[in-house]
Amino acid sequence: MINVDSTIHDPLLGAREAARLLGIKLATLYAYASRGLLESVPSGRGRSRLYPRSAVERLRARRDARAGHGPVAAGALRWGEPVLDTAITAIGPGGPVYRGEPAVALAERGAPFEGVAELLWGCGLVDSGPWADDRRALALLGRVGRPPSVFDALAAVIPLAAWADSERVVATPARELARARSLIATSVSAVALALGRPRPPPGPVASRLAQAIGAPARAARLVECALVLMADHELNASSFAARVAASTGADLYACVAAAVAALSGPRHGGEAARVQAAIAEARTPRGASGLVAGRVGRQEELPGFGHPLYPDGDPRAALLLGRARVLGASRLAVVDAFVGAAERLRGVRPNVDVGLVAAARAASADPQAPAALFAIGRLAGWIAHAWEQRAAGHLLRPRARYVGAP
Asked: pTM of the entire structure?
């Protein structure tokens, strides 16, 4: 994923509504915006501006932080201040940095996904592939029947892999590392089953996933690029879900299952489907320009644009769009028109969800390919977060501030 990794379903507020939410005067709101303290976008109507609700709430959280510990903690769970320490991923203007290695640079130089996963797991940038899938779990999944979606396939195969692992509570480093590799390989095979394709033969994850999503062999490099870029994104919703499960002592399968459940929501891993729906509605480049103009005129959101962590544009999207154009520029005319109109009329840039959709279209892949690229890539990060939280040794148990009836 936009995922909680983005401003998906992020309403745009008028100036008066934003000022009311902040409890300030309009003049103060305009001052905040002019000083760069509050993000805004053109409304498409004269000189007036619109304000993403998430940006307004972040500003309110920073202001409330002066009031004491309670407001700080409450605001931290809404794109606020950091809530825990991690040595896995940092995020800066250039995108995520995996244990000191910029993800965009790794993807640009063709680092293998297996090596990037091992890097996130603290093993160094070493390619340990090919990884073997769990035939017992896949056999059990085959008896259940074809899952209707990528998310359903992962939600089914991970508990089945746990069931097939009679020693899943044995969590020695060697056992856990073998489980992690097998979980990812098995998930690729489950994706193939969900999309009605045969189990890919042994080989690199990117090549196997390209086959699973119906992309030609020449698209494997683009698939690898997407997997590397999606491998982790700090404390997104699904990774936090994995950490919560890990903090209770749950086994690795349970931690990953919790993450898959969180990813399946339309406000996280399902955002790319909204981008696809908009592009399908547009149908042509001219239709894409008209669709964007209509939404801007009605002050509606544009799925796949903007990201709270990347006010100057999501660098992951920029790389994916560039690579997608190299592979299949002729299949991206509508996507390019969509992106161009959004930048021109609202001043927003695409996030990684648009990049994933572009990659899938360029590769002539299955419509569910963006979800598969996101989920398989992020598996590496979920596993890293689960292990790190387990090592931290404390339960994640935030408190709630009661506001109900006396």
From this structure: 0.83
